Amino acid sequence: MKKYFFLIIPLLVLASCTRQNHFTVKGSFRALARKTIYMSRVKVNETIPVDSAKTDARGLFRFRVKAGETDFYQLGTSPDNFITLLAGPGEKIFLSSDEENFAENYTVEGSEGSEEVRLLDIRLLKTKKGLDSISGLYRKAETEADFETRGKALEEEYVKLLKDQRRFNIEFILGNMRSLSSIKALYQKVDDDTYVLYESRDLQYMKIVSDSLQKYYPRSNHTRALVADLSREMNQFYARQLEQISSSLPETRLDPDLKDLTGKRIRLSSLKGKYVLLTFWSVESRDCIAENLQLKEFYKTYHRKGFEIYQVNLDRDEEAWRNAVRFDELPWISTREDDPSNPQIARLYNVRSLPANYLYDPEGTIVARDIHGRTLQLKLSQVFNTR
Questions:
Q1: Given this model, what pLDDT does residue 42 score?
Q2: Beta strands in 147-236 (DSSP E)
Q3: What is the dihedral of CA 356, 358, 359, 364, to 10 degrees?
Q4: Assigned architecture for domain 257-384
């Protein structure tokens, strides 16, 4: 008996795995008898047709979709009449609607993710209709005598609807961070140009969702696209911050004033009259360490001719910085950000990667940026051998 028992177990496991590599969708769309329903898989930037089925005389249909992971799908009769599903292996989904335009009123059972998406879509549809109604009233009010009062009230009502929708999406995200449906909540739009999450601080919710989904759906293309998009958005955010900071600064050149190894403050502008290479580096970067050794050769060759290096360290570990400067016997001016956890100087210079540098001429004007190795050597040779 034991012999046969051990043969049965692998068959049961195999059968179980087989049942989990697909999901089914059944539906009852009573107003769509003998119509063709299309199923497509939603990629990051496109939809891929999966299957089609024709409803019977009662509007019933059925799909069996092969799937190895949870993903977004579109099901509908046309590009203007479809619903979005968030379906995963093993789910048995049932959809129902009595309306021809079923996307505006339908129910879903057997798929938690699809129900989450339905809630998002139905709520946004309600908001859009409300905004359209207010816009219509506003256009009408423009022709009436009390427009100044009526128009202001309508504007306030319009803004309130936008804020209510934004609040709904934020609450949804915080309650569904482990679900891919939170991605849809991040990217919903009230029109072609306006996201529901329209404030710059809403990037924090993108970060929260990104961190969560990297844990629960690390292989999903949607997760990977979100992570990449977050990186781009953060870079743009920092660039805007830098622009705002720069525009608010007095009309003077950037002039770092940092402490060296002895605690003495040295201002970059005090080196005016020399060619100065302002560099940013970290002990933890092998590229920076390698470049420092090369810079020592350049410094030895050109220092007496009027070449100086003003180096800014970004490490939080002050002792590691001190030890590295001493161990490599760096001969130039070695300084450190006053608060490496909030590197103001590096931000003002828009430092994105290390090592980074700026070359100043004797008048204090930047004449080159991020030149390294052979390129820097040629520049220094050009400068000092033609003087």
A1: 94
A2: 189-191, 194-195
A3: -160
A4: 3-Layer(aba) Sandwich (3.40)
Residue showing tokens 């990186």 = 231
For the chain, what are the domain ranges? 20-110, 119-246, 257-384
Which position has the token pair 């759906």? 217
pLDDT of residue 201: 83
Residue type, 290: A
CATH class of 20-110: mainly beta
**Predicted pLDDT of residue 12:** 42
CA 248 vs CA 235, 348, 360: distances in Å: 20, 12, 23
What pLDDT, on a 0 to 100 scale, did the predictor assign at position 112? 97
38, 75 Cβ separation under 8 angstroms: yes
- For the chain, 387 residues long, the average pLDDT of each consecutive 10-residue run is 43 47 95 95 91 96 95 94 96 95 94 97 96 92 88 92 95 95 95 87 90 94 93 75 54 78 95 96 93 95 95 94 94 95 89 92 91 91 77
**Token pair of 362, please?**
């004797």
Quick one: 382 exposed, middle or buried, by C-beta within 10 A (0-12, 13-18, 19+)? exposed
Give me the pLDDT at residue 243, please.
59
Structure tokens at 198: 């329209």
Contact call for residues 234 and 340 (beta carbons, < 8 A): no
Bridge partner residues of 333 (DSSP): 310
Q: pTM of the predicted model, to two decimals?
A: 0.60
Strand 257-260 to strand 356-360: parallel, antiparallel, or no bridges (unpaired)?
unpaired
Kindly state the helix (H) or strand (E) to which residue 251 belongs, with its residue range: none
**8 Å CB contact between 44 and 86:** no
> Within 10 A of 10 (CB to CB), how many other CB atoms are there?
9
DSSP 9: H
SS3 content of the chain, % helix, strand, coil (to 5): 45, 25, 30
